[in-house]
Design brief:
single chain, globular, mainly beta, four-stranded antiparallel β-sheet, 11 strands, seven-stranded mixed β-sheet
Length: 133
């Protein structure tokens, strides 16, 4: 049974940094999408960043581009979200999610990662990020 667990959230001041981790148990990330989503109070869930784990092609939401890096750990069952220069607007519950495996070239794969929301089958419970001004 696949289980995803997020960690690394917390409270920081504006300009600070956090690194979120999404660790899979019972599974290894291979040729699939792993996305980091966030939901702020009163707002819809947004895809923050995604990675296709075969080749490492990435996608970033314009709101975080340049401040956030998504990467896969060498152990192949952890995906990280490094967030720098955090802003109060980044305050939200952050969730990681993963699709099942599929084969595609980088550009086609990352398009699927950012557009096929129904493809994200596995979800973690979330980790809270709070940024104060």
């Amino acid at each position: 049974q696949v289980h995803l667990m997020e960690s690394g959230g917390g409270s920081v001041q504006a300009g600070g940094s956090l690194r979120l981790s999404c660790t899979a148990s019972g599974w290894t990330y291979t040729s699939n999408c792993v996305g980091w989503f966030r939901r702020a109070p009163g707002k819809e869930r947004d895809l923050v960043a995604a990675i296709y784990t075969s080749g490492g092609t990435t996608y970033y939401n314009d709101a975080v581009k340049g401040r956030v890096t998504i990467s896969q750990g060498n152990d192949k069952n952890t995906v990280y979200l490094q967030m720098n220069n955090l802003e109060p607007e980044d305050t939200a519950m952050y969730y990681c999610a993963a699709t099942g495996p599929f084969l595609a070239v980088g550009s086609t794969a990352i398009t699927r990662c950012k557009e096929d929301m129904d493809g994200y089958e596995y979800w973690g419970q979330g980790t809270q990020v709070s940024v104060s001004s």
